[in-house]
Each structure stands twice: as C-alpha cells, then as structure tokens.
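In this section we walk through a basic example: taking a raw amino acid sequence and producing a predicted 3D structure, encoded as discrete structure tokens. The instruction is simple. Fold the sequence below.
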Amino acid sequence: MCVCVCVCVCVCVCVPVFSPVQEGQEETSSLTGQAVVKLQQLMPRARVVYASATGVTDITNMGYFSRMGLWGGGCSFDSFATFEKAVSKRGIGAFELLAMELKGIGCYVSRGQQSRGTAADAEDEARLAG
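The resulting token sequence is shown next.
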C-alpha cells in the first residue's frame, strides 16, 4: 500500500519579530527565524509559501526564502550573503527588477491592501483571542 502525503508550509512573517538566519550569524537570528529555516531543512519535499508584508523592499527580509532558487547549489549565488551583497549594492532599482523577475516566472505575487471602509470591534477581537 502506498500512502502519498502532501505538505504545504505557509510562512507568514511579521518582520518586527522575525530576523532571518544568515550564514555565520545564527546567534543574531530570532527563534522564529531559526525555526523557519529548520522546518524547511527537515521537510525538503514540502511546498513552501512565503507571505511577507514587506516583500522585496528590504533584501535582508528575504533571508528565509531558501526555496526560491535565488542562491545555493546550481545558482548564481552560493549563499544568501553573496546574493544580498550583490543586490543591495545596486539599490532600489535592483529590488524592483528582482520583484519583476519573480513575478514574471510566477514565484512572487504582490498586492496592495486597503483598509478604507473596514471596521473592527474590540469586543469581537477580545472574544476571538480568548
């Protein structure tokens, strides 16, 4: 009997509490960052969806995008550090080109969100949290 298990890992990152793991700087990474990287290593065949409010606005926030094929074996950059250095020195224009390329190959989706016309009730939020 063959059992097929499909796993999808969704990584939603709150940038203020997340510091991605970078080679040689593991001690400066948050526990969340370390857990995200470890989870990806433990589940090499799992599909991964990365969700970030900052997207490609700051390359350092992409440190956990290890499954995107931007660095590592068989890529132009051997590590995130070399990728970050190459893109960062080219400025915001490089960030824009990177986002366009990732969108073009279907690896990146960017959407604007608007809160106009929405409302929240503190009582409902407290009830849901408890």
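Looking at the output, two observations stand out. DSSP finds four helices and two strands in the chain. The mean pLDDT is 75. In the next section we compare this with other chains.
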